[in-house]
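Example for tutorial group B:
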């Protein structure tokens, strides 16, 4: 109880299956006494592009624009744009980050990737000498909850799409673990669009059940072996 959760949600339609998963998470975690904040990226019309508009005031080097350097310098002097400062504050306060989205092309939707690109800047989320276990966002947990288009049989080592863990490597390891965030087992709903009404209900119930004991879970072993063994 008393934990703070940020759900970063990337779906256009509240009545979608992703919308139902979001609703369940908000209700269940609130019931547990957690304070839940939602960044509904489409509703916010969140800007996914990393541009010089993300820096307020002067540039560190106006001759040649380098986004990484400019946002790092801007972060240090409090010169990032207002939307980024707001999202960073939400991240800073959260004990748990849940990312809720449909899988697009083996990855997250562009609007969510843009959130990662723009919010997790150097100085805030990591430093070159402070990455992975030394990342700047330690003591936080993350959970990727997503839906797929293809059935589970596609996403196995033997399946045409390969092990789903290969898909998780850039998201969980390359972003979250890089920033020092611990990673809980992903929550994957396979092909809800092609499932029966009954199967969809089962998927929603499974998510509710999992959330009930979420705080007792141990993070995964964040090592290449988890993804590629």
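The residue assignment follows.
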């Amino acid at each position: 109880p008393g934990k703070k959760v940020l759900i970063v949600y990337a779906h256009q339609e509240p009545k979608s299956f992703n919308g139902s998963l979001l609703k369940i998470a908000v209700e269940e975690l609130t019931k547990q006494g957690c304070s839940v904040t939602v960044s509904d990226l489409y509703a916010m019309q969140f800007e996914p592009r990393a541009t010089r508009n993300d820096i307020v005031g002067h540039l560190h080097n106006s001759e040649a624009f380098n986004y990484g350097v400019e946002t790092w310098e801007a972060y240090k002097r409090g010169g990032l744009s207002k939307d980024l400062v707001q999202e960073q504050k939400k991240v800073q306060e959260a004990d748990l980050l849940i990312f809720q989205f449909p899988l697009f092309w083996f990855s997250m939707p562009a609007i969510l990737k843009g959130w990662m690109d723009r919010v997790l800047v150097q100085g805030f989320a990591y430093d070159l000498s402070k990455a992975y276990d030394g990342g700047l966002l330690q003591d936080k947990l993350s959970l990727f909850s997503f839906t797929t288009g293809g059935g589970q049989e596609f996403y196995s080592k033997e399946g045409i799409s390969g092990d789903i863990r290969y898909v998780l490597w850039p998201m969980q390891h390359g972003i979250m673990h890089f920033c020092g965030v611990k990673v809980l087992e992903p929550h994957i709903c396979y092909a809800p669009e092609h499932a029966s009404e009954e199967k969809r209900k089962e998927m929603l119930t499974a998510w509710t059940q999992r959330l009930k004991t979420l705080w007792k879970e141990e993070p995964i072993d964040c090592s290449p072996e988890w993804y590629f063994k």
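The helical segments are 17-31, 67-76, 82-93, 110-119, 164-176, 197-212, 224-228. Compare this with the pattern of hydrophobic and polar residues in the output above.
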